[in-house]
Design brief:
The structure is a single chain. The protein is α/β, with parallel strands linked by helices and 339 residues long. It has a single domain (34-338), classed as TIM Barrel (Alpha-Beta Barrel). The chain is built from 13 helices and 11 strands. It has an 8-stranded parallel beta barrel with strand order 1-2-6-7-8-9-10-11, surrounded by 7 helices. It has a two-stranded antiparallel ribbon with strand order 4-5. β4 and β5 (92-93) form a beta hairpin. α7 (184-196) runs parallel beside α8. InterPro entries: GH. Keywords: Signal. Residues 1-22 form the signal peptide.
């Protein structure tokens, strides 16, 4: 009885038809992850500085995930780097114009960056409602505050936010970092809409195998093209092998590490690791998941903090780099040598 009921529910919601019959991606598609995909999460980059973006271009990393961005109750989108001024208001870009130029520059000229994503971050436990609470409510045709249009059609608030991210910011994918709401149906609906805008969707889990598998199973093939597993803080015990087994997917799974400098310390808080420690973990992960083709670092803000705090002097076991260029090179080396 459960399977027919689920099929009926999906047909009514329109999800089943999207999964089975949605068009394939066409010419001019968003960039896929590189064959060896090295990812840097980009907190502290809005509006950022030219030097930070130049460091990223010359880093050898291939994907930048702009992070973190939050939807608020009135339908505005904010950067975690600026809690006072929205970047999207009433379906239009109203953020810093210099940021758009810097993001565009990531793929221009001499650069290793081939792909740009943007991360939707939700609330943690005991925080007020945030991004994924609103996605859960608005993805359905339900009531909403004045100025918010529910659903995922072309006039909806969610559609307009994502369209601006595609057209104005130029992102290739939207990264889902839901850590509290866990409503798969609304994310499947959001993903179907993202696909219609000719973007990919990626996942950034740290727990709840079944939730993320539900999204994978309910989404159109090819929409989700990367999974970034958090291997720090709440996900400190994570390794990619079990995620590969539980998710039973061919979508590449990339471990994400917290580098030293995180939480304004050179020490190992929240399972942050030195380049040598990251390399050792990569070697261990590769043995259990031979198909692993990349990994990433959370986040650029911590790379900068590591150098500003002179961690190489304060705590030599945290690494030897004294410049941002050198620390990025050390982190890249730790990831690639582990592969």
């Amino acid at each position: 009885m459960k399977l027919p009921l689920l099929t009926f529910t999906l047909l009514v919601s329109g999800i089943f038809s999207n999964v089975c019959f949605a068009r394939p991606f066409a010419a001019g598609d968003p960039a896929s992850p590189a064959a060896t995909n090295l990812t840097m999460f980009g907190r502290d980059t809005y509006p950022g500085e030219d030097s930070t973006y130049e460091h990223l271009k010359q880093s050898g990393f291939t994907t930048v995930i702009l992070s973190s961005f939050y939807i608020r109750s009135n339908g505005d989108l904010y950067s975690g780097d600026d809690s006072k001024n929205p970047i999207i208001h009433d379906g239009k870009y109203v953020g810093d114009p210099e940021w758009l130029k810097r993001v565009a520059s990531l793929k221009q000229g001499k650069t290793s960056i081939t792909r740009i994503e943007i991360l939707f971050e939700g609330r943690w436990y005991n925080q007020p409602p945030n991004t994924y609470d609103y996605i859960r409510t608005w993805a359905n045709d339900s009531t909403a505050p004045a100025g918010v249009v529910t659903g995922t059609g072309a006039n909806s608030t969610l559609y307009k936010i994502c369209k601006v991210l595609k057209d104005a910011v130029g992102v290739d994918a939207i990264c889902i970092d839901d850590e509290s709401v866990y409503d798969a149906i609304s994310i499947i609906r959001l993903g179907s809409m993202i696909g219609k805008l000719n973007m990919h969707m990626t996942l950034c889990p740290y727990t709840k195998f079944s939730y993320w598998k539900g999204i994978l199973d309910g989404s159109k093939k090819g929409l989700i093209d990367a999974i970034y597993v958090q291997c720090y803080d709440g996900g400190a015990r994570n390794t990619p092998g079990p995620w590969k087994t539980h998710l039973a997917t061919n979508v590449p799974i990339y471990p994400i590490f917290l580098c030293r400098g995180a939480f304004s310390t050179c020490a190992t808080d929240h399972n942050s690791k030195s380049p040598d420690e990251i390399k050792a973990e990569m070697i261990r992960f590769k043995k259990e998941y031979p198909g692993m083709t990349g990994a990433g670092i959370w986040q650029m803000a911590d790379v900068n903090k590591y150098v500003k705090m002179d961690c190489a002097t304060q705590m030599p076991e945290s690494g030897k780099a004294t410049t941002v260029t050198d620390f990025l090179a050390d982190l890249k080396k730790s990831l690639t040598e582990g592969l």
